[in-house]
Amino acid sequence: MSGKNISSAWLIVTIALLSMIGPFSIDTYLPSFPDIEQDFFINRALLSQSLGAYLAAAAVATLFWGPLSDRIGRRFVILGTLVFYLAASIGCALATDYTTFLVFRVLQGIAASGGMVAGRAMIRDAHDSHEAHRAMAYVMMLFAVAPAIAPVIGGWLHDAFGWRSVFYFLAGYSALIILMTLRFLGETLSLEHRQSFRPSSVLRLYGKILINHRYQALVFSLGASFGGLFLYIAASPTVIYDFLKLDSHHFGLQFIPMTSGIILGSFVSGRLSHHWKSRPIVSLALAIMLIGAALNIAQALWLPPAPFTLIAPQVLYAVGIALAMPGFSILALDCFPNNRGAAAAVQSFVQMMLTAVVASLLLPALLPTVVHFAIAQTAMLVVAILLWFWARHCKTGEAITDAK
Predict the structure, then answer these.
(1) Whole-angstrom Cα distance, residue 323 to residue 216?
(2) pTM of structure
């Protein structure tokens, strides 16, 4: 099956489900934190490192999977990494100590990043710029379901079968995506567009990406703005258990409204792409996020923690990030149209490394107060806005093609 014959609807659905592996890997085991801590005799700070380790491993691995997908094709990378992920998930479920669990979480991260990078490049391969923005927005809209249902599924599995069942679920989910990929996804990268995978060529390519100021400003702006939302995702046990004094059955109070905001933002982004270019959409999105961050500061300073006042600003922020992400992604990939796999890899690397920093360094360093969390989110967004203004004044990235 060639890329030109792929049904656009099935491509979007399959890539969206593939993208859900990331939030499922992050969010489904969050309700199980207390039991995992008890089983492995560890504290919350140490278990949080398993989240950071997963993200860091996924980030580094993208730098390998991206150029590989530019060489051997997107479909091979997706299938190979899904099989790898399935095995690592079973390893997490069978772990008898924290060290073994952490090793398999790292392997999960390495595997999960391959499909994400190759899938993003596949979307851009199969569409022109405007169609790709719409397709990416619809992927985001479907993908957004994952953060809402993941902790709910995780909480249900945990209560019914124990925390290990969460990782058996992840193994089964990856098996489903393997079957869908075999059935519905063809290769979108033509033979004439395949690039060299020689170490010297890959290093030269990454060198060019690193010195492209426009590209770097775009990906770091996206990473910083998303980090402001991810802070509250990674800290959901603190938000639910400590700030709101609720239990594992109430994770939906945080994730369902936030996900609704992501779905709304993705839908609006897709609709606006019929009439607007990506740049004004991103600018509008950042303005919406700024309003959300300002409201978050206000409620943290003047209102006692309550589900509505604490979560409502995050919903508005989520609308903004979902509105912005397709535009950020397409603008970044278009800096390097002949090396979209590598460009998607660096974009994913930056985003995941920044989220790893949020989970492993920033989150443990923050005092567990709503004010400190609100200030941290606003600071990351301000950095993102400054980088966006810089990106708008940088020269457009030039296409680069390495020798085959």
Answers:
(1) 20
(2) 0.74
